[in-house]
Amino acid sequence: MADITSAPDVAEIGIPKDQWTEPFWQATALGELTLPRCASCETYRWPPGPFCPSCRSQQVEWVPAGPAILYSYTVVRQPAAGGEMKVIAPSLVEFPEAGGVRIVAAIVDTPLTSLAIGAALTLRWNSSGEDNVPVFAID
Amino acid sequence: MTKAAVAGVGSTPYYFRGESAPQTIFELIGKAVMAAAEDAGIAVTDIDGLVFYSYGFDAALIVEQLGIPELTFCAVVGGVGGGSAGVLDLAAMAVETGRAKNVVCIGACQQIDSRYGTSLAGLATTPQGILSLTAGLVGPGQSLALVAQRHMHKYGTRREAFAEVVMASREYAQTRPEAIRKRLITLDEYFAAPLLANPLSRYDFCIESDAALAFLVTSSERAADMRQRPVNIVAAAHGGSRDWGRAFFWLNMPDDVFASAGAASIAERLYGQAGISPDDIDVALFYDHFSPLVIMQLEDYGFCKRGEGGPFVEGGAIRPGGAIPVNPHGGQLSECYVIGMTQIREAVEQLRGTAINQVPDAKLALVTGGPAPIPMSGAILGVS
Lengths: 139, 384
Hints:
The complex is a heterodimer.
Chain A: H1 10-13, H2 22-29, E1 34-38, E2 60-64, E3 68-73, E4 76-79, E5 85-95, E6 101-107, E7 120-127, E8 132-137
Chain B: E1 4-11, E2 15-16, H1 25-40, E3 49-53, H2 59-66, E4 73-77, H3 86-96, E5 103-109, H4 130-134, H5 140-155, H6 159-173, H7 187-192, E6 195-197, E7 200-201, E8 209-219, H8 220-224, E9 231-239, H9 242-245, H10 255-258, H11 264-274, E10 283-285, H12 291-300, H13 309-314, H14 331-334, H15 341-352, E11 364-368, E12 376-382
Parallel strand pairs in B: 3-4, 3-5, 10-11
Antiparallel strand pairs in B: 1-8, 1-9, 2-8, 5-8, 6-7, 9-12, 11-12
Helix pairs in contact in B: 1-2, 6-12
């Protein structure tokens, strides 16, 4: 059987936040994936931070990320509970309708043989008690 | 204007990870500094400048342990691998401006309490880097695997090319007494190894090792009166572009920069300063933490066109007698990993004409730092 990908345990990691990343996590808690865009010049920025790198404005609006495609990926194996090995595909996910911004995320529930650059991705969630971390699958 | 030269080289033995114990890293550093002064033919007490490469070495402890009476210059290049050749830039500036006469550059690593393979994990636990951890991206090899994968996709680069970089480094290391990995490997062995971070296997990762190296930099005039043939710092640069600064965590580099080693602007500055082109370089000492990045540096530094690095190495270009011999000491893949410092040592040995795998009549050597988060760095060393 082909290996199926899964995601790291988020509860073990914990999500540090600051005032510029907080809105990202507030939206994911509601099941929405949003990205920060400058409210003055409309340049997307990543990571979230205090200034627009194009115009230095501090005004931000959070907009829906839109469709996602697989920009690049790797595959690693990590020990999991019970002596099993987890297959994880740390990947780079691009949002063409959000200025081409990319975020790193795990690809889940996907056979390794299906991983392909350019593949369309479906948003899923890797949830702990407090936080919803975006992960993606190839259907 | 006063120009700077490398007049002395010192090194501890090279140890596999942890095997330098019970020496401390400061004992390793002290031995390397004393060896560099001895090589140049000056007293340790004549050292008046210190430049470290990263990792927060303590200047007060070094001068106390070695009895260096007074520093007139002391500086650190930041970064996690990219800035290694930047020590030569800082030391040259100190010498050229008269801030100090005899500057010792120090680089060392000792992987006892922590392993550098997960060196990005600490940096990733920030609000801006945390998605790396939740995605399972904990080491530089994994971030650069994304880059290698993209290079294969964009340009058709084959794993055979990564294998060739590894096999060439082993061919060189075979005759290098200091080398930790001397055994030749075959293409079949390369492909039989399990992937650690697709498309990279363990052969594509550098060695985990312990050592300290030191380089004595002084003016070309003073160097001429010292013990060794002076090796001039022809050009040196550290810094780098914002485009590449996004690598490793946010990975939002423009597409053409993504599938690269991030060194194009450093290369342009070096060749500009030196007034030369890649054709003039006799030997290249690339920072080879992961084999695909050698291929991308060949492109960034203009030894072949963008995207053609794979076929270039597969054609034998980096082997002895090839278009551009690369890492004749075996590099970090096969000799020893000391965050780029062994590359500087090999450049000096090549230009003195004392290298084990000597490139005939080598006059100009390229040394690089990184590819790693900025600062990136590079230097061109030469003899007249």
